[in-house]
Every structure is written in C-alpha cells, then in structure tokens.
Amino acid sequence: MHNSLTRIQNVFGFFTTVVFAVAALIALSDFASPRTPSASVKTTNVQVVKGRPHYYSTKKEEYAIIRFSLDADLSSLFTWNTKQLFVYVTAEWPASGANDANQTNKAVIWDSIITSPSADRLSNLGPAALKKLRRSAAGKPVDPSRGLLSLRNQKPKYQITHPTGRVAETPDVALRVHYNVQPWVGLLAWNQDRDLGLWKSLAGARSEAFELPALKKKKDDKGDSKAKTKAKA
Fold first, then answer.
1. How far is CA 176 from each of CA 60, 146, 154, rounded to the nearest angstrom?
2. To which H or E segment does residue 11 belong?
3. Burial of 177 by CB count in 10 Å (0-12 exposed, 13-18 middle, 19+ buried)?
4. What is the rounded distance in angstroms from the CA atom of residue 187 to the CA atom of residue 140?
5. pLDDT given for residue 67 in this prediction
6. Backbone angles phi, psi at 158, to 5 degrees
7. Which of 38, 124, 186, 225 could serve as 203's disulfide partner, Cβ 3.0–4.6 Å?
C-alpha cells in the first residue's frame, strides 16, 4: 500500500502533466488561426532642432521630431489566446560609418499596448478610461476591432538622437511598423519578414524613404543674427 504522501505526489504529477499538455495544445492552436495584418504609414511633418531631447540630457544635441499618419488592420492578431498586442513605429536609416556596412540604425518614435478584453485590468489607464474601455467590449471575450488603428498627424513619443549628436540631413530614413503578440500561453511572436503557413507578413509596413531636414534655427537665434547685422552696419 502507498502512503498518503506518495499518493499526493502521484496526483500532483498527473495534474501537472495534464496542465502542460493542455498548455501545449493551446499554444499550438495559434498556428491554426490565420494572421493577415496590414499597415500604411507616412510622415506628415519632420523637424530637426538642437536642444536637450530629454530632461536628463546633460548637453544640447540635434534631435529629430517626426509626426506621422498610420492606418493599420491588426484585427487578425487577436484570438482567444491573445493577451495583449504591442505595436511600435521605428525610424530606420543605414549606418554611414566605414565599419558599419550593411548595418541599420533604428530608433523607436511611438509605441502602444493594446489589450484584449480579458486583460483590460492590466491596462495602464485611469479609472474613467478603463471603465469606458471595458464598456466598449462588454460580453466580448475577443474584440478584433481593437486592432484597427487610424492615427492622423500623430505626435511622436520619443525623439531621434544619435551618439554623434548630429542627425540633420540624414538621408534614406524610413518609418516601419512593428508588432509583438503576447499570448496567454505560448511564445511571443513578432512580425515576420516572410509568410509562415497561415501567418502572413505585415503588408505595407514601410514608408517611403525621406531625408531629415537641415537644422531648424530658433527664433532667438534669428533675432540675434539680425541684431548683429544691424550693429555691423
């Protein structure tokens, strides 16, 4: 006869085996759900100024402010196993150093976390906004409409800087849309560059290339230059 401790161990071992088997099936079920995301992003206003891009910056440097418009359909990424979706936009341009061949500079300018209705409690929102969000998805275990994004002249969350302190007139800059699916059970999934079975690559994720403008002078600098010109005259 087995004692009580042995029986408890056997029951616990069987329970964990079943849990891991069910979790594996849930994770694999994501591959049976088609993913057909699409996006369109373009710039609306680009400026390069000189100053302190962050409150903790110790010196002035050039930084770029890029406003953009984004239309994206990421609704197919929301399934019953989706916990939340992390969406972000980067600015990318080729490195110009002699030792940086085939390398690309990347800087995140905007990001957002979109939760599924079952994970709304994890949202970093105020009470009023959270109540409105829950009301919009009442009775919906999955709400694909949350994956529909339409941003117009969106202000960036982050500015573009460079270790050299110079970004003005940088050529071949492009915006790119990225996403990261965070499931309840399973592995994180990023947007892939090629189709993988029912999972399609993110169509239209890259904007047309553009060049960062020359450094924008502040009004005070213009006033000082005019005053100096008058003084010389």
1. 28, 20, 14
2. helix 4-29
3. buried
4. 24
5. 96
6. -130, 145
7. 38
Closest to 147 in 3D by CA, of 115, 178, 119: 115
* CA trace torsion 204, 154, 126, 191 (10° rounding): 20
Distance (Å, whole) CA 134 – CA 141: 11
- Residues 132 and 130: their CA atoms lie apart, in Å, by 5
Written as six digits, the tokens of 41 are: 């992003």
Three-state secondary-structure class, residue 134: helix
**What pLDDT does residue 65 have?**
94
Q: Look up tokens 């440097």; give the residue.
A: 61
Instruction: Report residue 79 as tokens.
Output: 């399934």
Interval 83-111: pLDDT, tens: 899 999 999 999 876 566 668 899 999 99
Distance between CA 115 and CA 86 in Å, rounded? 9
| Mean pLDDT value of segment 208-221 | 78
Taking the model in full, what pTM does it have?
0.81
Pairing mode, if any, of strands 82-94 and 104-115?
Answer: antiparallel
> Does residue 60 contact residue 52 with C-beta atoms inside 8 Å?
yes
Q: Are 39 and 70 in contact (CB under 8 A)?
A: yes
The yes-or-no verdict on residue 172 having pLDDT over 70 is yes
Give the pLDDT of residue 208. 94
Bridge partners of residue 114, in order along the sequence: 85
